[in-house]
Amino acid sequence: MEGIQVRCDKLQGGVIQRSRLRVWFIRVCSSIVLWTCLVQLVTVSELWHSHFFLGISSRIYHTNQSPLEAQNELAQPPPPFLPARNYTSNGFLRVSCNGGLNQMRAAICDMVTVARLLNLTLVVPELDKKSFWADPSNFEDIFDVRHFIDSLQDEVRIVKRVPKRFSRKSGYSTLKMPPVSWSNEKYYLEQILPLFGKHKVVHFNKTDARLANNGLPLDLQKLRCRVNFQALKFTPQLENLGQKLIRILRENGPFLALHLRYEMDMLAFSGCTHGCSIEEAEELKQMRYAFPSWREKEIVSEERRSQGLCPLTPEESALILQALGFDRETPIYIAAGEIYGGEHRLAQLRAAFPRIVKKETLLVNDELQQFQNHSSQMAALDFMVSVASNTFVPTYYGNMAKLVEGHRRYSGFKKSILLDRKKLVELFDMHQNGTLPWNEFSNAVRQVHEKRMGQPTHRRVDVDKPKEEDYFYANPYECLCEGTKCDDLLGPLNSSQIR
What we know:
One of its GO terms (molecular function) is glycosyltransferase activity. By secondary structure, the protein is an alpha/beta fold. Among the domains are: 92-231; 236-262 and 311-489, Rossmann fold, CATH 3.40.50. It has 20 helices and nine strands. It has a five-stranded parallel sheet with strand order 3-2-1-5-4, with helices on one face. A four-stranded parallel sheet has the order 8-7-6-9. Helix 3 (101-117) links the parallel strand 1 (92-95) and strand 2. Helix 3 packs across helix 7, helix 9 (264-270) packs across helix 10 and helix 12 (314-323) packs parallel to helix 13 (342-352). The longest helix has 62 residues, at 2-63. The model is unreliable at 1-13, 36-75 and 493-499 (pLDDT under 50).
């Protein structure tokens, strides 16, 4: 009996052991299946992210647009995301943009185009944090980075960071350099592309005006436009607040956006002190000398003003708007930062046009608080309002004025009055010394600007002086002729009435 019991115990132990092995085997197989499913789900979700979910969010965005906004979107429908382009990358292009928002925006468009030309992988651009404004914003704080990557995937591969194997921790040293300004495709193909064969990663530490205005193939010019007008969307937070500003302004009828470039940094940089006190002029001079990159030989403000190199003062701006026929009931949105001299310097302009507003007066503090101390994000709000305005008037032809002008041309050649400051200074001085009566002054101002309204025109080309050519992003006419003969669109009969 005892032997039988021992055999039974052994048999029972074997059964238990086999049962444990079976349970262990089932758990292992289940784990493998679960991990396989998880990997498949992650892969599918990545594919759906750009095509399905973004498609839904895009449709929701368009559903919430106003009729006028929807009409504008119908005029320029965004293209659907196309399949990713399959190519062998020649290396990674890192870029550090320099300057303000619109200077960086144009540079980003250029760098995408360079990456496409050289079959590179572009790393999401780094934005300037060391300029006068010291804005800590990253790319994703201003632009919709997912849309930027996905909307260009059929042209160029864009990643958020360089792979770890090319990092400094891995002992890799990246080549840093600024490309030559206003360069054409030959320069990039013959001098820049070979560098990637040796270094694999090249870091452009300056990116403004590194691509020529003219002489580039049509497909590259159109890609610059595609990045500018379609891929570079502001973040939803900025878009929503910008659209709110536009809705508020439109409730009171047509409005004018005045880019009053009379901020302290502009005056210090340019050396323009017309209308300032002796103390203010000295303050601006000291500020200019505090920045090594702004220093130059002694600037004579009145000489620079007579050459048309100074922004208009608020007082001069008031006279010009009156001469152009805008009445005192015209709503005017001041697209600018803090005006030098504050409300004191705005007094004459406000007396002539009492319906002056700014983003700070149209929105409550809580709405703007998240964008305070972020100059590029605040500039993005002014940019959106300026593009949407019925009339746009910049008092200085800087980067924002040029980029807004280009967007308004792209939106149907909306009126942008581009002031001839050199001629205006002559007219101002004659009017103020009594030699040019108001009626003659007003007629002269109108005549000077009859063909400076942002109407269709060719870009001015000067092969020997590319800096003096018309800027591509102010007038990208290669992108404005779909379905129309460019010769007809850009013909000589393109003047427009002021009002």
